[in-house]
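Thread amino acids onto this structure.
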């Protein structure tokens, strides 16, 4: 009897080798990643995609059984993150909590936010409220991970404890820590969004596409996170496969930005494109106007552009919004000593104001944009004039999904 117990503890029912254990672990954790990114994030939270009820329930069950996450709580906390991003009310902003806190204790920040009833009531609308949700998933969230723990013990014996422990820290680390933490602290940005979101990698594989965090913040309701030709979103690949067999319906995908040639004045199509793509417009302005001006000024002065800190150069693209007071003063000194750079930065600030005027109506925004384009073309700065001519021709083109 004692030998039988020892034999079971050593290998469980399967007596599997190391390779099988590793493959099993990678499969179950990847399934958890898919449950989070496909169901909780893209479907339940942002309504970018609808899944067949059977698929949706499988993903909902897996998120519960593998992590104990409650759909309404996850959705409410994430929606609040978008609504209050980089403010004191953001549930997990590295700007206020610090990168180390969010990276290593992100799950604790999530738990604190999920206990706030006001947050749940305001941001948790539209989540499942059926019998099984009330009596099992939400009513007993810890039964799921407990069941997973028991199954792992049965399959692998004492090794199931280690597998279960790693499963339980997988999502808290990669999603609550890496994406919410490093994804607002380090990486590259396609879009000059009104927050600090970054893309951690152009190949969204390990975390199912969640690495493309800046893209997501630019177009939150888009079911597709990869928005550049070199970017890969494995979550989107799964959605396309399910759609091909009638198990998923894509509701929203970010439109692409088109540029029409020889448009004399901004028109209705221009305004629609600017409202939808204001973050991309500001990114285009930095790449097409500010960055070339910096290079030209440095070349004329015989200076090394790299002598200017990269963070300071990048801050010119958002007016120094995220700089501390000391760095902001350094940026202002940099701009004041370069007349052309000062001019293009002033035009950037004015363009940002124009893009926020859509609340006053399309015609008011169009009139302000016409004035901006005319003054930009009359500035005598070639890159600024070229950008104004390009801006007039902006239009929306349906995204190719």
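Threaded sequence (401 positions):
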């Amino acid at each position: 009897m004692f030998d039988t117990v020892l034999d079971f503890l050593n290998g469980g029912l399967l007596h599997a080798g190391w390779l099988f254990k590793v493959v099993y672990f990678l499969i179950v954790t990847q399934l958890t990643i898919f449950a989070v990114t496909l169901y909780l994030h893209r479907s339940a939270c942002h309504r970018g995609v609808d899944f067949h009820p059977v698929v949706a329930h499988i993903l909902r069950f897996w998120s519960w059984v593998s992590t104990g996450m409650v759909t309404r709580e996850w959705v409410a906390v994430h929606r609040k993150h978008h609504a209050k991003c980089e403010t004191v009310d953001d549930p997990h902003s590295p700007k206020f909590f610090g990168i180390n806190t969010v990276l290593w204790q992100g799950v604790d920040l999530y738990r604190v936010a999920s206990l706030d009833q006001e947050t749940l009531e305001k941001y948790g609308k539209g989540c499942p409220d059926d019998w099984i949700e009330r009596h099992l998933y939400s009513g007993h969230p810890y039964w799921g991970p407990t069941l997973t723990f028991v199954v792992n013990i049965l399959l692998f014996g004492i090794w199931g404890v280690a597998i279960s422990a790693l499963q339980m820290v997988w999502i808290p680390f990669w999603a609550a820590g890496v994406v919410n933490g490093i994804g607002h602290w380090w990486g590259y940005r396609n879009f000059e969004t009104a927050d600090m979101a970054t893309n951690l990698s152009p190949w969204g594989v390990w975390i199912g596409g969640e690495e493309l965090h800046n893209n997501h913040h630019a177009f939150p309701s888009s079911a597709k996170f990869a928005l550049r030709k070199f970017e890969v979103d494995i979550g989107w690949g799964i959605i396309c496969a399910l759609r091909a067999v009638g198990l998923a319906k894509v509701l929203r995908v970010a439109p692409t930005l088109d540029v029409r040639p020889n448009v004399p004045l901004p028109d209705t199509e221009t305004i629609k494109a600017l409202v939808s793509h204001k973050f991309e417009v500001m990114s285009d302005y930095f790449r097409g106007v500010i960055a070339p001006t910096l290079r030209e000024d440095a070349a004329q002065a015989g200076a090394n552009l790299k002598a200017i800190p990269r963070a300071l150069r990048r801050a010119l693209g958002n007016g120094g919004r995220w700089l501390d007071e000391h760095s902001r003063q350094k940026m202002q000194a940099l701009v004041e000593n370069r007349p052309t750079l000062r001019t293009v930065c002033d035009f950037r600030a004015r363009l940002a104001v124009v893009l926020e005027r859509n609340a006053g109506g399309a015609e008011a925004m169009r009139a302000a944009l016409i004035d901006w384009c005319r003054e930009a073309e009359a500035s005598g700065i070639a890159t600024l004039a070229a950008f104004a001519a390009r801006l007039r021709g902006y239009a929306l083109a349906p995204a190719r999904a």
